[in-house]
Amino acid sequence: MKNLKLTKGLVALTSAALVAVFTVAMPTVARAADGCVDTTILSGIKVVDIQRCTGTDMNKSKYETIMPVKFNGTLMVYSHGIRYNVNLPAIPVVAPKGSLIDYSAAVSPSEEVTAALLAQGFALAGSGVQTQGWNLEESVDAALQVLTIARDQYPKINKVVAWGNSLGGLAAQALAEQLPGAIDAAAPMCIADSAQAEITMAGDFLWGMKTLFNPAIKGTNYSAGQAGYVEMLTDLGTVLTTLGALSAAISANPVAPAWPATTKVPAALQAIPMRSAVLLLGLISGIATQSNTYDASSGPVGPLETSFGLAISPALAVLENGAQAAILAVIANYDMEIRYGGVVFDNSKTDYAKRLGDDADIFAAALTGKSSTAGMLAYLSPFNPAAPRVTSNPVAVAKMNSVYQLQGKIEVPTIQISATADHITPPGAAQYLIDQYEASVANLAARSGKLLTIWNKPADSYTEFSSAGKPITPTVTTNGTNHCNYTTSQILAVAKLAASAAKTGKLPSSSAVKAAIKNEPNLFINPNYTPPLLKFRQ
Asked: What's the pTM value of the predicted model, to 2 decimals?
């Protein structure tokens, strides 16, 4: 998803318009003829001779394999991240040009990465997966099938690395844990945790938006069939207009922004600056307080130079990050409710005061003091009838949780990378894999010395301001923020470290790792860095 950039025109967006402008037939999946073609690609100025093969596997997932003529013996099997499981009209932020369900195969995170790896002799393979949305089981199966197809096509393959982004990173790790003999190394990037953990994080933020700012948001329990599809589209419009109102209010008066007209909270609560409520939602959900634009430390020259970074920037970061989390929650809730047969988000017993924890003191100024924090938490209490909680369908939750859960049973060298300010798959997801692995080693269910974690951290200060003191959204996304936002060189460093580990059967030495990331100032390795787990697991 792209960064939140709300405009005045967004306020006029209505759910009726969303539904009216979009009428399209669902795409069908036909089996394409398997075929290979000899061709070339450019990697910089280097011409690389390759053979590209495409087709569909036994489950009708589209696949692609690319074999360079000068092959180094290692195949990289890539699993892409989550894709929308529904067709969408043109919706600002979500799908500016509209989108159809994307079944295309992907062999790496980007064309630039693809070209660079092929130029270095790696073979690449990937699937499009026949089912989109939260498709962990299908993704693992598709990765295994394209791996098998590639091995059948090219017997000269002697080493295999499974890798992927986000949900694809989870798929790569699940494949490695369930079938360690199928691969020689794994490289999960910005790994997702589990369906329950991810939907809890995004769902908490969406529920908070509904409860504090706009009760018109449905959020969960979408109807079956076309009615539910319309409800989901309507929610996207309502969420975006609500975010637009919040953004406009903070821009107009960052110190004491007014609450939106759609709020139903009492006047006493509205006396608290709305930005404090936005920040509270981020903190209890686990949304990062650093974003593409806001570093939670810098301030403009003038009277707000100190207070902006302390009290305003964290809330603006949460708003920028939370926009994508809320959109994810709408689409993911709709997807998972259809997939598993009922509501899967549940906050009926969530203790948001406990969730806030020490952050109540750390962000005391930005939350406008302890009494204001207590007042907002009281309003979100399960004992407040004006803030009804959501109870899940136990059968649907059981189906969701029956999908493979990470166990950390790592038998092959595994190198993961995670960003400290990723707001969709926070570093706590990577920490969960670390914890599971350490427990498996202690229980003799995994081999020690097989997991390396590389962290990606944004600079301490990067927010820029105009001469008028307004924050400037960067034209290039700030590294270390946003979702799976790695540079090509960072991705290649991880890929090559994993390929080296596949050949030796061991993790690279500390000196080799340091050499690989020496020109990457945002990357670091620190076994003592322990980010908090996702709120669902705390």
From this structure: 0.91
